Please model this.
Amino acid sequence: MNVTDSFEEVMPCTPLQDAMLLETAVDPAAYNNFVELRVEGGMDPDRIMQALGELVEHNPVLRTGFVECESEWSAFTMVVWPKLDQGQIVVVASDDEETSAGLEMLRPLRMRVRVFEDHALVRWDIHHALYDGWALELVVKDLETILSSPSFSTSTSSSSTSADSTNGSSKIALTPRPPFRSLVEHTLRLASSSLETQKQYWKDHLAHFSPRSLPSFHSTADAARGLDVVGYTTSISTAALDKAAAAVGASPQALVQTAYAMVLASYLGTTDVCFGSVFSGRSADVEGIEEIVGPCIATLPVRVDVQGEVKDVVGAMQRVMRRHMENEALGLREIQGLMEGESEGGVFDTLVIWQQSLATDDEGEGRKKVELLRARDYLEFVLTLEVTPGNGGRGAGKVMLDANYQTAVFGREMIEVLLKIGRAHV
Model:
């Protein structure tokens, strides 16, 4: 492994982490994401550094790095460090360029703090192999707890600005979380079993499917390569979406994904379509998995035929989503491997992410210290559509759409049109 520094723990990566890290090995920008948090209240930099230090100490996954160490179970190995390096949490005076390319996989996390008179911004450059959306909410909740604690508020601000500094007198008693190792051990047990029933399920789901890629929507072939994001807050209220879904006996997610499938079918010129969908993975048989900080998600192919009555397509989507949850143990690479001879490339090139918040409306209103301002995922797909049902705070209760797209395929105007068409189908 060529690791000479002391470490707390070493363990194999999960298949999901392996897949992400392999993509990063090909494209160094892939899965190097950023997250930006706003911390309310006037606070000196040392205090914020102290809070972040306690956050990192409480969540070992934030101190985790990766090394190539191919084994029977994985191509990469996780290394949990006892503390962050000095340069992983720093105070900056101005905005840095908005890119997270260049993260070192041994230390795939950087936090940059910029302090203003009445708030601070904390920009994280972080590899996706450390977290998912669910885990991020848990981490933000921990930071909220630290900053809101009376003992933290009344403690002195004499802490050091080093990344590993925590002042023992003001250390907050956070509730211990189940270790990510529990999920790793679960995946190892699954890897040692045959999973023949699940393999057959995916063979049947994708039988005789002929993948189609989205064409370039540019008039010339020399469009610049890169990633961009377009955000769109729809006029659809979360309450209205919930009501419409209940009327047809489906989940709001199934309703939105049906609308997306219909749009995709019109772009591809076929009624038999397949796109990726992100499942939380929090239904796995692992004790306390709802509280584990780490990437538990499963990205799975969703195939549906949109021909027929809309209500029937919604019903089919609901059934597919339910069956997928029962068969999410296989990783995407394994599923795609079952299609050998039928598909030379991937099964899909677009992805839908349903970003359902874990917080209730009351919790959202009560959280005043820390706010998630924005996040960007650098994924390998042509188009990633994030759907966020807004609560009473963020989004003003409206459904929000964020399209992360490859500029070599789409122009910004085309993405704006696509989002509006999707909203009309919903």
